[in-house]
Amino acid sequence: xxxxxxxxxxxxxxxxxxxxxxxxxxxxxxxxxxxxxxxxxxxxxxxxxxxxxxxxxxxxxxxxxxxxxxxxxxxxxxxxxxxxxxxxxxxxxxxxxxxxxxxxxxxxxxxxxxxxxxxxxxxxxxxxxxxxxxxxxxxxxxxxxxxxxxxxxxxxxxxxxxxxxxxxxxxxxxxxxxxxxxxxxxxxxxxxxxxxxxxxxxxxxxxxxxxxxxxxxxxxxxxxxxxxxxxxxxxxxxxxxxxxxxxxxxxxxxxxxxxxxxxxxxxxxxxxxxxxxxxxxxx
Length: 283
Known about the structure:
The chain is 32% helix and 24% strand.
């Protein structure tokens, strides 16, 4: 199921549900008010997190209402304007792929220390190993790695991002986010996986010139000013029944003003979402 959050009121969300195989969206609360719905749905139409946390029973009830509303022309709308689908209360940013770190580290050296590139390239050709200083560190082989991001600077799809005054080189990292709908602590992998109510497209924006400075010369590394000024989140939440089984085989692309800038996929994840969230929940 695909959902969007309509412009919220002071006290509640308004949810829009996409009708599969159509271009139609349904204002869920308006449809329920007009057509009625199973009892389970009534307390959920005003909160994205409560709806996602309710799982399959809520999805089935909402699907039934949405299809009926579409058939009868009730509470229908075109694709709603983008807003944040959830307002994050916290943000954990995981390093999920060896290749991600490898590419980012090599690009930093190529941009800031070009004289070292031939030596590094020669070492890697001879040894068929990544240059040790460009590896993510031995801890990455033992457990998931993450930093605590700035949840207060996440902006919605289509919103302007203010260029930080201290940087001249910004970069994007196309990622996905998991929406955790309930508190977890010392969770098992299974419990952690069950806490995910949906998935969103996420864009980690980085100040690469600042990253070079912070990573080499400061004790707290490249997540102080480098990555805390802004991130962006897609407007759609897609529920786990559509994503979880394919989370390590999704294709992705970045287009800017219609021009294709990059393609990638989620293949090769080092740790599952359950492993990552369980580790973050320790203590």
